[in-house]
Records
---
Amino acid sequence: MRAGILALVVLALGTFFGFTKENPFSNPYELNAIFDTANRLQERSPVRIAGVNVGKVTGVEPLGDGSGKARVTMEIDESGLPIRQDAELKIRSRLFLEGNYFVDLHPGRPGSPELDSGATVGPAQTSAPVQYLQLLTVLQTETRADLQRLLKEYSDALRGPGARGFNQAVKHWEEAWRTTSQVSDAYLGHREHDLSRLLDGQARVYGALSSNERALMKLVTDLNDTVSGFARQENNLRAAIPELRDVLREGRPALASLDTALPEIRAFARDALPGARSSKATLDAQLPFIGQARRLVSREELGGLATRLRRTVPFLVALNRGTAGTLEQNRALASCQNNVLLPFATEPIPDPDFDWHTGEPWFEESPRAFVGLAGESRIADANSPMFRVLGGGGPTTIVSTPKTMDGPIYGQTLVPLDGVRPVVPTRRPVFRPDVPCETQEPPDLHAAGGPADQQVEARADRPPTARERAAREDVYERLRTFVERSRKGLPARDPLTYFPELHE
């Protein structure tokens, strides 16, 4: 009896598992996915990778948070493993627009981490097919009108001259398709994962666009305004199209040169990539500075200052133009000083009559007169300043008749004058204001000597004796000795203070 019952149980279990193909001893890989909508996806719907069945749907249930999303549970066979973290799942229909559905599974890139059994894929990596009702909802009145307008314009373009232009364009298709194939081949990349990196970059761009619906709506609106602007300028657009042909013709050599330069640019970009990555910290640190600089150039700050300076700039321009003339005069003055005045001031003055005085430049000799001028009328009392006057005399009378005076000038000296240097010129130097100072010759300090002015020596009727002549010569020698010792800083007795020989 027991044996019969056991046989019936074993036979029933075998029949059940034979029809259901369930293995109670297996531990299948389970994957959960969150979809915005599950449509009419049913249990036991197939899960496919590249069109090959690798599993089935084991459960479809609402998420329960009020969002309308659904959780789909799937069992994946060994042939569909591994499933990675960047896997993507799409619910697709077996028939056009409506019909049975299956889950199209993209297991992810080989370099991504694997998902453990029981893991859940978020809604950002899932998508559902477009329903017919959704398609009809999108085709609102404005959209249908735009579609009708597009089809009408397209039909007008293919009618008459447009059709001829379309036929003329057919002969260029071969070259266009050849170029397009080269572009498509370049999209495959030259190294492993080039295409996957391109798709990742595009996914980030599209994800950023889809994450900000308001910005995307504004982009579409701006694009509509741009296209409308082209439509309003139909005649100008028609005239620009032939010019575009010439641009393309001229642009081919430039594109060929660019294609030749791409390997070098690619190598440069590859070498510059580490520097660009390391610059992120620098750019992040610059963002606060840019924010402050933006406030600095606002209307309240430097923007208002620029407005005020705008009124000042014309005056600064006029000042710069006037400064050019001033700088030219300063240049001429500096050139005159370097070429004429300084050579005159530093050239030694020759004095052949006094060997102890020759060779002294003007800039050393002329300031000595300032000492006496500084002492003149320096002492004063309540009545008036006091002047110091040095008087002298002698037996020789000098008579000079300057041309600027009405009569002669008389003076007394101890000894007769041997001569004068320089002599009075016969005419005044020529004044040439039309000749620039910087081109004139420096003054010539080699002055010529000549006889002294008229002079009368007082003496008795008798001729001087030998003693008197010797005394006069001695006085002259003492005067010469006094001057020489004074110049050398040696003690010397002033011969003009006392002449004992004259008092004997």
Note: The longest strand covers residues 52-62.
---
Amino acid sequence: MTFGFLIFPGLEELDLVGPWEMISMWSKHLQGPETCLTVAQTRDPVICAKGLSINPSAAFSGCPQLDYLLVPGGQGTREQVNNDVLIRFVAEQARGCRATLSVCTGSFILHRAGLLAGRRATTHWSSLARLAELGGVEVVQERVVRDGNVWTAAGVSAGIDLALAFIESVAGETVAGKVQFGTEYFPSSRRYGDLHQSPQAPAYLRRC
């Protein structure tokens, strides 16, 4: 199995690195995907939203058929939804993938590639209305949403929860638990301030 992570200028670092940590631990220690690779339009270094530089493992032209593809979000998605080369790559890869996943506003790339048509999906709380306005998708205010073989997650840190839920669906609860324990991912229940009670907060957060 090969798990690919799409990268592009302006992606949000944690959208990528959080799931990468979970998936790569599964891969290296618990008989997960044989290969994890980062894929970009070219092999040139990619600069993320906060300045992190990433050297892609493969360019679109040399990328094998992936079993799984994860698309991060970030401000860079606002440009990439109009990048026909990138959208075509996502759409073509998705046809052969067992599952396609997005984090945060990566959902807009999935939408542009036609992968959210008639599906339930989520995105960063500040972009829920914008995704709904595009039409053709049922936008829900949940942290992780699965609809068939398409998975979407809310903003930034939600990608970690997405990866764990995905691992559980493929390899079972015991394996997902070992990844969670190995990474010591047990988020504090503390809420800082009261923004989780604001009208802008997504429904899943207001329920906490």
Note: DSSP finds eight helices and eleven strands in the chain.
---
Amino acid sequence: MAQGSLPDFPALEARHLGEVKFVPGPIDTPAQIRELTAGADGLVVGFHPLDEPRLAALDASVKVIGRTGVGLDAIDLDAAERHGIAVVHQPSYATAEVATHAVAMLLALQRRLLPADAAVRSGWGTIADIGRIWNLEGASIGVLGCGRIGRAVIERMLPFAGEVRVFDPLVNEDVPGVRVVADLDELLSDIDALTLHLPLAEQTRHVIGRSEIRRMRPGSILINVSRGGLIDEEELALALADGHLGGAGLDVFDQEPLPDSSPLRSAPNLLLSPHVAWYSDAALSRLGEWTVADVVSYAIAGSVRHGRLAVDPVGPRVAGNA
């Protein structure tokens, strides 16, 4: 089993698991992939890009790629399908963690905890130093995307907000306690906060751009713990700078690590975290164990137990859900 450079997942610390042998190594170039995967049944990867040239370099023995995470935008799924290689990812390993992170960011921004903390550290401060805090109990919270994580966010927000509304083009059924709307325009109209829970694809890139941001209520909050490419970051920085948005919380970015030149670095009322919404000690353990177990299971029996097959040479492709 070939393994690209990964964090120290507990399940991967042992290099042998029964009859399964793990061989770690770099996979930055097709030549490195060819060398690492010689005779391997599967490949375990993190955020490594796997485009057509890299997938073509996989040894003919490779049956499956295990992605340690949810997002699949770094893997050319069409190329994997052409080469007859299964791709398994883990949409549910950190649902609770990501949803909690999104809500924590939203509440911290709504309660203006960043300026409140700064006020105390600089002497003490007054309400004027903290800024306007709108009433959460009378607020309308928008959720864009109603997959596992979107629904977990909804469950967490219902006790706090006056209204939770959701839009997802793939969801038509009622969601208990929630107003399901017909389109993005209706979702954005007069909302106090918006949280994003979509996969990144061609049709979702910059789904939140200038017109969408300006349609949101002045002083509202934008949260993204899904994929950085969902938001036009330049327009977000402008909306924070001119005060149209009251705050934003980002765990993900178009380019990671966030470049020094990014306008987000100087934007006000912006709460940042370094793509760690997924993390807890339990989630880290699950991710390693589930990915390894699914790669081994598919290599041996052609099936997976924990994750989802985004590409299965003997079955239909299933799109990921954030």
Note: The mean pLDDT is 92.
